[in-house]
Amino acid sequence: MMATLFNAALGIPSSPCFSFSKQTTLSPLRCLRNNQDVNGFHELRLEINGDKNVEKSKSITGDDRNAKQDIWGMFKEAQQNILYLNKQRLKAIDELNKIKREKQALLSLVEKLEAEKMAGAGRDNQSIFSDLLLRIDSMVLNNVISPGEASELRRLVISHKVGVYDVFNVTANKGDSELLGELRQFSYGRKKSGFHIVHICTEMAPLVPNRSIASYVTGISCALQRKGHLVEVIMPKYASLNLDEVQGLRKLTIEAYSYFNGQLHENRIWTGVVHGIGVTLIEPLHYSSFFNRDMINGYPDDFERFSYFSRASLDYIVKCGKQPDVLHLHNWETAIVGPLFWDIFANQGLENTRILLTCHGFNSQCTEQPDKLALCGLDPERLNLPDRLQDNINMERVNILKGGVVYSNKVLIMSSVHPKHTMVHNLSHGLEPTLNIHWDKLAITPYGFDKSTWNPSSDSFLPENFNAENMNGKVVCKLTLQQRLGLSERASNILVACIFPKGAELDVQKVKGIILHARQQNIQFIFMGTNERSVMNQTLEGLKQEIKDKNMRIVVKYDEALLHLVFAGSDIILCQSFLDPTDEIPLKALRYGAAPITHLCEATTNRNFMNHDQEATKYSQLINSSFGNMSLSFAVDEIRNNPSKWRQRMMEAMTQDFSWDGECYDAHVEAYSAIKNL
């Protein structure tokens, strides 16, 4: 009987040579462990000695009873060891399967890239399209064609994308004259659809990573191009740029002059494609130190640096013969383009172009001595007036951001939670009088995130995908996450993750309070950062050594795949705040069906920071009505006591599109349409 049990448990087939006969008795059964085995596996040795001539009628003595008790005790211990071995084996199989899946995904990606390389250097149609437009810029700058013909060719390319792809694939490696000949065979037959937008900005991801404006410029540009609009970006060529991210990078050795400080100065122009967006980088030759620095801004001569770049961008646009629908400016750094455009450039072939300014807040405005405006060709006396650039507080200085507001056709204020009246009346830092005058040109737009990377229905990092209509995959993700981190594997356990965004500071005392609260409510908790190298990771390491809890896990090493799994497997994501418009963690949490809750157990700091103003964003209305004033305790109680209602709440939140392609895109197209008709 016992042998049969052992054989079944260990997966050993029964054999005549390993069985008990009726004449065989058992000596004490011993389970011996090898203490040298560091992996926790045990060596199990079964010793059986047969005693002959044992009388069946022999009375059972006390020693016999003790022996039987020892046998059963040993047997139970052996069973535990067998179960332990099986559990270890299953874990090893799971790890092996995971490695196989990751290996297969990597091999598939390599095969895809190799196929793309063989077909055409791994470039998509959008990149080809943007590269072709940059080739037209190069031809006009090198005097191969006139600015007028360049403008016609751009309209032709925009109107006939499909046909041009085929032509350019054939002629991409040929000279300008051959390419021009192919393009001239097309006829301009219909009016172009969509907008032509040129961003004049100082940042773009991934060239300048980890900054909110950089992510925004790339995110909204890609969303616009996916919907059929033409987008280009002009920015300085910093010495620290990550140029490995640029496809087809070319240095144009051409005469591209710009006016500054009473003289014409030569610039070197670099062109390439980033995420399908045509990018032009301007490198000053005379003022070479302007952008050869460690930081993007924060220097005493920032106005000189960025006013030079702004003027050079406009000079470049005119020389290329570009005629965009919209010049899109960002913050004070390129706000001076507004006055420059209307005072100098509007009559140089840009009569149909309009100006849009995006403000990522009003705390940084740049005030300067009025005479510095003359550096880029502006008239200080004409502009140093209360209704133009004169600062509202210090009237002896000019305010560059104010000038951008005054000279723009439309101003977008980036704010995911605050409505327009709050931004103007409470957060304008002295610009309130100007914003009130230009109230009708102001509009609020939220930030977004990249839903092509963060999408539970297609996320390749997840063991099973899911969406609002079918949430079964979320349960699988939760169990997988619990298993990977060594937590109790039960779907009924409430799993809360606290994810710290890049640049966040860790309040150790607050974290300890959260841990104490989690223990009282018997929930599982995960702490994790979103940066590969940061002081945050060191602080988390210290907490990990200090705090030991079976329901608590602190992840110190950054892991992209695990981060996706944490969003997918968690019931609740604790966020620092809803007030930081650049924090993507609440947006991603909603996308993955996890409730975004603030760190504080009592959410009093969030109350009344929003209202149902008609100009509030859809995101702010959702947060205000569902999660803005929700404490962690309340959320846990709702999950436990009203699971159906909670599930419905999360499914409704998942259906909202808060990516760059959603509300943010709609707000931009509405703004472009409004100013195009002026």
**Which structural category do the helix and sheet elements fall into?**
alpha/beta
Q: How many discrete domains?
A: 3
Helix count, per DSSP?
23
Largest sheet: 9 strands, mixed
Spans of 5+ residues with little confidence (pLDDT < 50)?
A: 1-59, 116-122, 185-191, 600-612
User: What's the CATH first level of the largest domain?
Assistant: Alpha Beta
Helical fraction: 40-55%
Going by CATH, the architecture of the largest domain would be 3-Layer(aba) Sandwich
State the strand order across the main sheet. 3-4-5-2-1-6-7-10-11
State Rg: 33 Å
Query: End-to-end distance, in Å?
Result: 92 Å
Shape: elongated
| Portion in beta strands | 5-15%
What can you see in these coordinates?
- The longest helix is centred in the first third of the chain and has 59 residues, at 62-120.
- This protein has helices spanning 2-10, 62-120, 125-141, 147-159, 161-171, 176-184, 212-226, 302-320, 331-335, 337-345, 380-383, 400-406, 420-426, 432-437, 472-485, 508-521, 535-546, 560-569, 585-591, 618-627, 632-641, 643-654, 660-676, and strands spanning 196-200, 230-236, 247-260, 263-274, 277-284, 326-330, 354-359, 367-368, 398-399, 410-414, 442-445, 495-500, 524-529, 552-555, 572-575, 595-598.
- Helix 19 links the parallel strand 15 and strand 16.
- It has 678 residues and is an alpha/beta fold.
- It starts with a helix and ends with a helix.
